[in-house]
């Protein structure tokens, strides 16, 4: 005897459509912008120390790429303000 449980399972697309329709009923103002996170300020001494520490790292260090990404993120936060 074949199981017909699959026939009673709603397809994932139907669930997605239901969630999209329900999200249209949200009462919050969607035009309101989220507040920008604060930008941490570093002293000139801290910046100089960080620069010398990064300069001592090899070019292939993952931390160098991560710091580059962090710099882009800080620029985006400044533009948000």
TrEMBL record:
In the record, which residues are listed under signal peptide?
1-28
Stated name of the protein: Uncharacterized protein
The lineage's top-level taxon is Bacteria
Q: Which PROSITE patterns match?
A: PROKAR_LIPOPROTEIN (PS51257)
Q: Which UniProt keywords apply?
A: Signal
Which source organism does the UniProt entry give?
A: Roseicitreum antarcticum
Please tell me whether the keyword Signal is annotated for this protein: yes
């Amino acid at each position: 005897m074949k199981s017909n449980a699959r026939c009673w399972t709603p397809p994932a697309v139907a669930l997605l459509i239901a969630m999209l329709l329900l999200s249209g009923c949200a009462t919050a103002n969607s035009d309101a912008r989220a507040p920008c996170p604060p930008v941490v300020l570093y002293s000139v001494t801290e910046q100089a120390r960080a620069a010398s520490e990064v300069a001592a790292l090899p070019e292939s260090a993952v931390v160098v790429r991560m710091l580059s990404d962090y710099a882009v993120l800080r620029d985006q936060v400044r533009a948000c303000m």
